[in-house]
Design goal:
Layout lengths: L16 H26 L5 H53 L4 E5 L5 E5 L3 H4 L3 H4 L10 E2 L3 H12 L4 E9 L5 E12 L5 E10 L1 H15 L9 H18 L2 E10 L1 H8 L1 H17 L6 E6 L2 E9 L2 H16 L2 E3 L2 E3 L2 E9 L6 H17 L4 E4 L9 E3 L11 E3 L2
Parallel strand pairs: 12-13
Antiparallel strand pairs: 1-2, 1-6, 3-4, 4-5, 5-6, 7-9, 7-12, 8-9, 10-11, 11-15, 13-14
Length: 408
């Protein structure tokens, strides 16, 4: 807390009539001595004894005044000190009251950065019991996790330089086992001679803030309906996959999928049921590929699958077969079961292009060629001078009139 918030105790010490007398007495003594000496100089007979008595009286009065003045000054300094201590106690009480009303806690460390005090209303719920951390440095507390060796080194360098710090973020494992995010801020302390004697500061539980931040980050990069990566995250992962593919000479395959006759479900059952079908399709797609592959939703009933580290086109065809089989399984929507078909367009790096945006465009064109030819087919992007590879799945009875089955 800033010193400006503590009133000046000297202003609270009022002057009394005795203080006025203290200042008048020496003036009166000087005047009396001057008058006496003047009288003697005007007198024809000089009484030495009278002069001696006059001088001793003046000295006695002055010595008494001086002693009283010293005593008064000491009493006044004591009063100022008491008022200063009272103001500091009041300030400390206010600070601790503010801490107790928040999720923050107060901490102190000695000159070797070892904890000597921790207090706050929620300390027991968030931190390790104080008797387990007393005498330890922050990096020696086992409950502190999620901080790299480089971060600890930078933090220790700040402390050893006796510099203030703020928002040192780390994770703590609370007594109940839950992980909590905390933010720590501190300021160096010095004694009356200016010698460094430790640190003090506050800690704040920022778990909810971090969760909200992570939630916003997730929403910014994921589809709100299916939870799959959206176009923004897809572009980022596709760029990374191509960079790695170029570095290690791997093929990257992109598949663009569009559900056939999905509009029938929306028209017959409504968009709420259609959303449920999209969620089911997203889950099946995720289960049809490897952990390191990406399944994203572009919007509507369009999905994208990115397959990094593919050896040749036969591997991509194998994945397409699995996707077709997964989507072909009946999906219950409302009072009916639907059997959906899917049109797939495939483009590969570096076979067709080494530009991420062009890869998506080529796969989109290949997919729409399958749509225009009747759907339920897998088309590879066509390169100059090469025939286009087409896998047709329409022989598996995907007629529109057979896409619905009434549930019992």
């Amino acid at each position: 807390m800033s010193d400006s918030h503590i009133s000046n105790p000297a202003r609270g010490v009022q002057r009394t009539p005795f203080d006025i007398v203290i200042h008048i007495v020496p003036v009166g003594v000087v005047i009396a001595l001057a008058v006496g000496m003047y009288g003697l100089t005007r007198s024809k007979q000089i009484d030495v004894m009278w002069i001696w008595t006059l001088c001793m009286t003046g000295v006695a009065i002055f010595a008494t005044w001086f002693a009283v003045a010293i005593l008064r000054r000491a009493n006044r300094d004591t009063a100022i000190q008491r008022q200063t201590e009272a103001a500091l106690r009041t300030s400390e009480q206010r600070f601790r009251r503010l801490v107790s009303m928040s999720s923050d806690w107060y901490w102190e460390q000695d000159a070797n950065f070892r904890f000597v005090q921790v207090s706050g209303v929620r300390v027991d719920n968030i931190l390790t019991p104080f008797h387990k951390i007393k005498g330890k440095t922050r990096w020696e507390v086992e409950a502190n996790i999620g901080v790299s060796a480089e971060q600890w080194a930078a933090h220790r360098a700040t402390l050893e330089s006796h510099l203030p710090f703020s928002d040192f973020v780390c994770q703590l494992r609370a007594p109940d086992g839950a992980l909590r995010w905390v933010s720590i801020s501190g300021h160096p302390m010095h004694d009356a001679r200016g010698k460094f004697c430790g640190y003090h500061g506050i800690g704040c539980d920022i778990t909810e803030r971090m969760q909200h931040t992570e939630r916003f980050r997730h929403l910014a990069h994921h589809d709100t309906l299916t939870g799959l990566p959206n176009r923004r995250l897809l572009e980022d992962r596709l760029n990374q996959a191509i960079v790695q593919g170029r570095r290690w000479n791997h093929r990257v395959v992109l598949m663009l999928l569009d559900l056939d006759h999905f509009k029938i479900i929306n028209d017959n059952e409504g968009h709420a049921v259609g959303d449920g079908v999209l969620i089911t399709v997203a889950q099946r797609l995720r289960g049809s590929v490897r952990e390191g592959d990406t399944v994203a939703r572009l919007g509507g009933d369009e999905f994208v699958v990115v397959l990094p580290e593919i050896e040749d086109s036969r591997d991509a065809m194998s994945v397409a077969d699995k996707i077709i089989a997964a989507i072909r399984e009946p999906i219950t929507a409302g009072t009916r079961q639907y059997v959906l078909g899917v049109s797939i367009g495939i483009a590969a790096f570096p076979d067709h292009t080494d530009v991420p945006e062009k890869l998506l465009s080529l796969a989109d064109s290949a997919m729409y060629k399958g749509k225009h030819s009747g759907g339920s087919a897998c088309h590879f992007a066509q390169t100059s001078g090469q025939p286009q590879l087409v896998l047709d799945f329409r022989s598996e009875e995907f007629a529109i009139e057979n896409t619905t089955r009434t549930t019992n």
